Amino acid sequence: MQIRLSDHFDFKKLIRFTLPSVSMMIFTSVYGVVDGYFVSNFVGDTEFAAVNFIMPFLMILGAIGFMFGTGGSALVSKLFGEKKDEKANSVFSMIIFSSIILALILSVVGIIFLGDIALFLGANEKMFDICLLYGRINLVALPFFILQYEFQAFMITAEKPTFGFIVTLSSGLANIIGDFLFVGVFGWGVTGAALATALSQFVGGIIPLIYFVLPNKSILRFGKFKFDFPALFKSCYNGISEFISNISMSIVSMLFNYQLMKYIGQNGVSAYGTFMYISFIFVSVFVGYSTGIAPVFSYNYGAKNGDELKNLFKKSISVIAALTVLMVVSGQLLSAPLSKLYVGYNEELFSLTKRAISISSLCFIFSGVGIFGSSLFTAMNNGTISALISFLRTGVFQSLSVIILPLLLGVDGIWISIVLADMLAAVITVIFIISNKKKYEY
Fold first, then answer.
1. Residues 386, 389, 393, CA angle at the centre, nearest 5°?
2. pLDDT at residue 357 tops 70
């Protein structure tokens, strides 16, 4: 039986509705991890470091998809809650069209200036050509990358989270099979890894685009629209937190790479890259749940259903708490085997990576609170608070921590800075949630 945004959610229905979104985010992260595994084990540590070095820039451009997806789905869900179905579909169509045009422009500009960007970020002579090769192939696929992230959010609004998971599964399998063939069998190296990633993004972006263009049974469909600039601005405003979060995270990753090159060298970048791949999987559980439940919050906020908002909030706190325990314990138990999987061929790099994961994974104690809180305020169409939480977490707390703590604690300070930033962000999030409880009736 299909679950509707207007339903009353008990725990069973809550898990059933958000599980496809959680699975979708985990699988998206897993195939990114597979990409890194093949580059590290079949190509080399220099290539692995180079891919990790240029990846933050690519993620900055991909953040456009997060902004339009989360912000747009919050507005569209709210419009459905207000029984404005025709306007909801018009806004949806406008957002998709606008993001495609913007993505094409960013793709061309990125390809032209990628070399200058790699040099500006501090790529050394060994990594420069590899960064250029991997980056330009992925930039060709940027429009599909952005669409993929958008549709992950809109599939939930369309009440089709299971179909969204199937699309992500298909995209992930395309990447995994592509990595196996292009890198493992054909030996195409970084070119093969980049082609596998581009192929997966094409699959993840084009399938839902075709679905929404053709007649379908969901409440969302792509059709004629008039440009509504206030609605477009509102969508960007709603999703600005995800945009800022991803940009800040990418900039902070560049700062981490700079500090690690300074304190350790290339091995430090590889160790941090390994943690980031693993962190994507763990954090994706929180992101998947928060993204999955956000349209339900938006719908009930639009429908002014305070009782259901309270119900959703209480149950969500319980889910986040349970996931927190699971993520922290898993991070500690799996630090050694996961490090062995990636860099087991180098004993020095293995020891460094294992310590990095053991310390940094303590951030999962706090990260779920910040992620859920930011998503909650996006769902309530309050982009200001959501953006502030995201910006403080990455743009301020992580940046200052990774600069200051290494001066006091050495290399360990770099890993501890991740934990400290998430702890401070969790405190700020709790303050915002408590102070706005009456306003939003959750």
1. 145
2. yes
DSSP 392-432: IIIIIIIHHHHHHHHHHHTHHHHHHHHHHHHHHHHHHHHHH
Closest CA to 422 of 343, 364, 348: 364
Quote helix, strand, coil % in the chain, to nearest 5.
85, 0, 15
Reading the block at residue 201, the tokens are 């993004």
Distances in Å between the Cα of 161 and the Cα atoms of 152, 183, 255, 373 are: 8, 32, 36, 21
Whether residue 256 is predicted with pLDDT greater than 70 in this model: the reply is yes
| DSSP track, 21-43 | HHHHHHHHHHHHHHHHHHHHHHT
Query: Above 90 in pLDDT, residue 219?
Result: no
What is the reported pLDDT for 137?
A: 95
Contact between residue 171 and residue 204 where contact means Cβ atoms under 8 Å apart: yes
User: CA-CA distances (angstroms) from residue 12 to 8, 319, 391, 409?
Assistant: 11, 12, 34, 46
Q: Is the pLDDT of residue 332 over 90?
A: no
Q: Of 402, 401, 325, 390, which Cα lies nearest the Cα of 364?
A: 325
Closest CA to 164 of 288, 280, 62: 288
The answer to whether residues 241 and 294 touch, using CB atoms and an 8 Å cutoff, is no
Instruction: Check if the beta carbon of residue 393 is closer than 8 Å to that of residue 312.
Output: no
b vs e for 303-334, b when ≥16 Cβ sit within 10 Å of the residue's Cβ?
bebeebbebbbebbeebbeebbeebbebbeeb
Q: Which of 3, 7, 1 is closest to 17 using CA atoms?
A: 3
Instruction: Give me 442's structure tokens.
Output: 């959750």
Chain centroid to Cα 299, Å, comes to 23
Q: At 167, which helix (H) or strand (E)?
A: helix 161-179
- 117: Cβ contacts below 8 Å, ≥ 6 apart: 57
Q: How far apart are the C-alpha atoms of 249 and 273, rounded to whole Å?
A: 13
